[in-house]
Amino acid sequence: MGLLDFFLEEFIENIDWVEKDKDTVLWKFPDKDANIKYGASLTVRESQVALFLDEGQFADTYDAGRFELTTQNMPLLTSLKSWKRGFDSPFKCDVYFLSKKTFTDLKWGTPNPIILRDPEFKQVRVKAFGTYFIKIKDAEKFFTEFAGTKSIVKIQEIENSLRDIVSPKFAEAIAESGVSVLDMVSNYTELGEKVAPFLQKDLDPFGIELVKFQITSTSLPKEVEEFYDKMTNMNMVDNMDKFTKFQTAQAIEKAADNPGGGAGEGLGMGMGFGMAQQMMNQTSNQNQNQNQNQNQNAPAEKSQTKEEIMDTLKQLGELKESGVLTQEEFDTKKKELLSRL
User: Fold this and answer.
1) Under DSSP, is residue 258 helix (H, G, I), strand (E, B) or coil?
2) Is 73 helix (H, G, I), strand (E, B) or coil?
3) 100 CB contacts (<8 Å, ≥6 apart)?
4) Higher pLDDT residue, 200 or 168?
5) Where are the alpha helices (DSSP H) in the chain?
6) Measured between alpha carbons, how far is 89 from 83 in angstroms, rounded to an integer?
7) Which residue, 158, 132, 154, 99, is CA-closest to 211?
8) Do residues 207 and 141 touch, judged by C-beta distance below 8 A?
9) What is the pLDDT of residues 288-310, one digit of tens each?
10) Residue 241: Cβ within 10 Å count
11) How far apart are CA 27 and CA 30, in angstroms?
C-alpha cells in the first residue's frame, strides 16, 4: 500500500446508508476510525434521518436530502468544536442513520390468560392476539433511551422489548371498556382504538409512535365456549316444528349421499318414529274433529277411502317389521282402521 492510498483511506468523502433489509431501525456508519473530510457529501434518503455525535454529544441532525459538510451546514458541530470561519480540516464524528418508515405486522399476545370481570360470566379468563404498527418519531430520544451505543438495532429487538408492555395495557383497556367477552369479536376495532392510547403513554419515553393496534383473535376457556355454543343453539331454535323439519331434510340429504351406509339405517328408524307419530297425530286429530262435528250437529268430515285405509295399514306393517311399532300398537291401530271399512 502506497502512502497516497493510506491518506485516501483516512478521509471519508461520501456518507450514506443503503438499506439492505427491511428490518433495520438504526445503523452506525462504519468509519473505521477514519476522519470525515471537510466538504464531504452526506446523502439522506426518504424515511431516513442522520445523527452526528461529537464525543457522545448530539450535534447536527439531517433529514432527507444531499448535504455538503461544511461549517455552514454543521452549525452545532461547529459550535461544539469551536471552529473558526474558514475551517477546512478533516474531523472525527460518529454518524448514525435511523429509519423513520412504518414497521408493520409486529406481533403481540397474552402469554397467560387475563382474568376479567364480565357482566354475563362474572369472571372469565381471556387470551388475545394481534398485530401493531410503529415508527420512530423522535430520533434523538430513541437513540438515547433505547439504542444507546449499539451499532445496529433491528425491529425484532424492539418487538421483543414491547411484548411485556402490550399485554397489561390490553387488560387495562378491556377492563375499562366493560365489553362482554361474548361481544369482543364484533368490537375488535373499537377495542384496538381503546388500547392504543394506553400503550402510547409507555412508548413516548422511547420516541416511538404507535401507528396502529389490532386485535386479531380472542379465546375463552373450553367450558365457556361450550356454554356459549349451547346458548347459540337454543337461540336458533325458536320453532321446534321448523327445527325438526330442517333436521329431517338434512338427514335425507346425507342418506342420499350414502345410501348403503349405517346412516341410512339410522335415518330409516328416525323417519319411522316421525311417520308413526305423525300418523297417530293425524288419526287423533281426525277423531277430535269428528267428535266436535257430531256435537255441533254438523256434517262429519269425509272418511278415508278403502284404498287410503289399506295404504295406511301397509305403512304400519312396514313400521312393525322394522321394529318401530310393537305388535300391540300395530294390532290396536289395525283394528281401528279395519272398523272403518
Assistant:
1) coil
2) coil
3) 47, 48, 49, 135, 136, 137, 139
4) 200
5) 3-10, 75-81, 139-142, 155-177, 188-203, 222-236, 240-257, 262-295, 306-321, 327-338
6) 10
7) 132
8) yes
9) 655 555 555 544 445 678 777 78
10) 7
11) 9
